[in-house]
């Protein structure tokens, strides 16, 4: 008698992997790659709604691609880039964190420790979804490539 017990997690992991592969293949076939962002205010434990975000394409000089304000959920109402405008290359996202915290009445030193948080990142496969979130407080931030 075997002591192995299948709790279903292996099957769930395989199913999730197959679904992710199908989504990736569908995006590649239909060119559904896109760039999105999300802001989380880690100082207050809430979405970073109302933060200005500017997207730049960096190719020698900076070319502005989008200038948006996050919604109440800390997200943009549509992708920052998608379709033919989403190409491989280097990009920067400027998050206006200092203005966001000042607008919420947070006493900030002058000059602000964090004012505009700039994230420079590369897109190698524009058929994929690149999600670049910002977790931010008046004195720290982090990011990662999300999904």
What does this structure look like?
Pfam families: Transthyretin. It catalyses: 5-hydroxyisourate + H2O = 5-hydroxy-2-oxo-4-ureido-2,5-dihydro-1H-imidazole-5-carboxylate + H(+). Belongs to the transthyretin family. 5-hydroxyisourate hydrolase subfamily. The chain is an alpha+beta fold. The chain has one domain: Sandwich (Immunoglobulin-like). The chain is 20% helix and 39% strand. The protein contains two helices and nine strands, in the order H-E-E-E-E-E-E-H-E-E-E. The strands form two sheets. Strands 1, 2, 5, 8 and 9 form a five-stranded mixed beta sheet that branches. The protein has a four-stranded antiparallel beta sheet with strand order 4-3-6-7. It is globular and about 45 Å long. The model is unreliable at 1-6 (pLDDT under 50).
Please write out the topology.
Elements lengths: L8 H22 L3 E8 L4 E2 L4 E8 L1 E9 L11 E2 L6 E8 H7 L12 E8 L5 E9 L2 E4 L4
Shape, per Cα inertia axes = globular
Instruction: Tell me the β content.
Output: 35-45%
At the first level of CATH, what is the class? Mainly Beta
Tell me, rounded to a whole number, the average pLDDT.
88
* Count of separate DSSP helical elements: 2
CATH topology: Immunoglobulin-like
How far from one another are the termini?
Answer: 42 Å
What is the string of SSEs from the N terminus onward?
HEEEEEEHEEE
Enzyme class: hydrolase
EC number: 3.5.2.17
Protein name: 5-hydroxyisourate hydrolase
Domain Transthyretin/hydroxyisourate hydrolase: 35-146
């Amino acid at each position: 008698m075997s002591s192995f017990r299948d709790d279903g997690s292996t099957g769930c992991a395989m199913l999730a992997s197959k679904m992710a592969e199908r989504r990736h293949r569908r995006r590649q076939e239909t060119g559904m790659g896109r760039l999105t962002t999300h802001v989380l205010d880690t100082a207050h434990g809430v979405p970073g709604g109302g933060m200005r975000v500017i997207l730049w394409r960096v190719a020698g000089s900076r070319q502005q691609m989008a200038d948006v304000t996050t919604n109440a959920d800390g997200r943009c109402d549509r992708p920052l880039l998608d379709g033919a405008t989403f190409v491989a290359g280097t990009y920067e996202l400027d998050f206006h964190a200092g203005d966001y915290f000042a607008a919420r009445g947070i006493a900030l030193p002058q000059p602000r420790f964090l004012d505009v948080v700039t994230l420079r990142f590369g897109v190698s496969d524009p058929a994929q979804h690149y999600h670049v979130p910002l977790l931010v407080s008046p004195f720290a931030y982090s990011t990662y490539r999300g999904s």
